[in-house]
Design a protein that fits this description.
about 500 residues, alpha/beta, 10-stranded mixed beta sheet, 4-stranded antiparallel beta sheet, about 35% helix, globular
């Protein structure tokens, strides 16, 4: 018996179970693997959940929604009157007109106590519909009769009558055969600069032990705790009551819950595109700049060019310098100029496109308006695309370094701006560290290093009439304001802070 057993191999006598490793494409492996998008969302849940509280659930849902909303900036170098008429026939509303209507409504509300009957007779939908009607009438001869029903199609007339009888708001007419891709915008996802300057003050907000552990991302909830502890710096806050709308800046959008798509802009009779489409939050930093006739303006991080184009559409600046840090981004700026500027080659005295690191621009005492739309985490892009995602392990150090880069750029802008001038800082991030935290650090460092005196503008009252379109989050910001995405108007996030140099 022993002889027979000796001739057999052990595995033939005892069956040993072996667990084989699944391949990299097996469903069980893929299920466990987290993409950069997943890491970004986990990070936002952990961090923004603590910052925005109960509001985070709605913000998160809007951020993840593929259905987004845009505004159209009319190109003054094309056929302005035709473009405005076409946009209004779509049901789009002039942002300036909407602001003025609701500002007047606020004024009337403050001067007299509204009654229940007044509220019923003047709902928001009627205000918007009357505004659309009055805007359309302005483009027709005086003897032309334009009725309310001309704002809708004949097929919907009977439905609209029944809706009006029951006091229900009119439903928007959906445009047909307009591809979703026509409204896509060029999202800034590569606006990252390597920092060589040391802003060690930022690390008052960042646990050093966390920074050394580079196996995973740093939880920004830890940043936020440190940021709250660093609130010892004080600066004068001055209230601003009105948001200025330049006369020639024509911006159109749709009311709450109306996701009608703008058609793709076409070439007008002058050979340039009719209008530029961008995120609805992007117009607010431009308006906050309060562009005046003869201003010399610097857009420090201008690509892809939407805000720079909006500044030009005011027809106010004497000079606009649109700058960015790398050739590929400068090429995007030049493409926008070619597509939207009439005789772009003749704009040399008005528009300059430059390629410089914004931290080292040294043209002092030149600019009286500076837009600082810095590189940031671009939160919406982070949860929708793996490409150029800052939550990739290879980009961890870059992401940690962002507040350093942002504060360096803002500090330089505050040093460059002329006395009496304005700097507007902006990001498309929900992070209080990249927003108020960077503003606080830059203001404190400039105060310590120079004799300049700055004031921050509280624009709460000025922005109030726009609550019909924007949700401004109340999270205890000390300096700026932030638009958060909502189901009704899915644009943003957009943070902006207006700073003036008074000495």
């Amino acid at each position: 018996m022993a002889h027979l057993l000796a001739g057999l191999k052990l595995k033939e006598i005892v069956k040993i179970s072996i667990r084989y490793k699944h391949g990299p494409n097996h469903w069980s492996v893929l299920k466990k693997k987290k993409t950069a998008k997943d890491k970004a969302l986990d990070h936002f849940d952990e961090y923004y959940g603590s910052v925005y509280g109960e509001s985070w659930e709605g913000i998160r849902a809007a951020l993840l929604d593929e259905k987004t909303k845009y505004m159209a900036v009319v190109n003054n170098f094309s056929d302005v009157q035709r473009i405005q008429t076409e946009l209004q026939l779509l049901g789009a509303i002039h942002l300036k007109s909407l602001y003025n209507v609701f500002k007047e409504d606020e004024k009337n509300y403050q001067n007299s106590e509204p009654t229940l009957s007044q509220d019923i007779e003047n709902p928001m939908d009627d205000i918007i519909k009357n505004l659309q009607l009055s805007e359309l009438e302005s483009f027709y001869p005086n003897d032309h009769v334009l009725s309310q029903t001309s704002l809708t199609s004949e097929e919907d007339e009977e439905d609209n009558k029944s809706l009006i009888e029951t006091n229900k708001p009119l439903q928007p007419v959906e445009l047909q055969s307009i591809e979703k891709s026509l409204n896509e915008i060029d999202i800034d996802n590569d606006r990252l600069i390597q920092s060589s300057s040391d802003q060690s003050m930022l690390y008052e907000y960042v646990p050093a032990t966390k920074l050394k552990g580079l196996n995973d991302y740093v939880l920004e909830s830890d940043y936020y705790n440190f940021y709250n502890k660093g609130a010892d710096f004080k600066i004068n806050i001055v209230e601003e009551s009105t948001l200025p709308f330049p006369e020639h800046l024509h911006v159109y959008t749709f009311e709450d819950n109306n996701y009608t798509r703008f058609p793709s802009p076409k070439l007008g009779s002058t050979g340039v595109l009719d209008y530029y489409l961008f995120d609805g939050g992007s117009i607010l930093p431009v308006l906050a700049l309060d562009i005046k006739l003869g201003d010399v303006v610097l857009d420090m991080c201008a690509a892809p060019g939407g805000k720079a184009l909006a500044i030009l559409q005011t027809l106010m600046p004497r000079v606009l310098v649109a700058n960015d840090v790398m050739e590929s981004r400068v090429n995007k700026l030049n493409n926008v100029v070619r597509q939207y500027m009439l005789n772009a080659s003749k704009l040399g005295n008005m528009l300059y496109v430059t390629e410089n690191d914004a931290r080292y621009i040294d043209d002092t005492n030149v600019f009286n308006k500076i837009l600082v739309d810095v590189p940031c985490t671009t939160d919406r892009h982070m949860v929708h695309s793996v490409e150029n995602n800052m939550f990739k392990p290879t980009r961890l150090k870059e992401r940690i370094n962002l507040p350093n880069v942002q504060s360096s750029i803002l500090m330089n802008a505050l040093k460059l701006v002329k006395v009496g001038g304005t700097v507007v800082y902006a990001t498309c991030s929900l992070s209080p560290i990249q927003n108020d935290g960077v503003v606080q650090v830059a203001l404190k460092n400039v105060w310590e290093e120079t004799t300049s005196v700055m004031v921050v503008k509280d624009m709460s009252k000025a922005l109030s009439p726009l609550k019909c379109l924007y949700q401004f989050a109340n999270i205890g910001l000390k300096y700026g304001h932030i638009v958060v995405p909502t189901h009704e108007n899915n644009w943003g996030p957009m943070y902006f802070c207006k700073i003036e140099r008074i000495q």
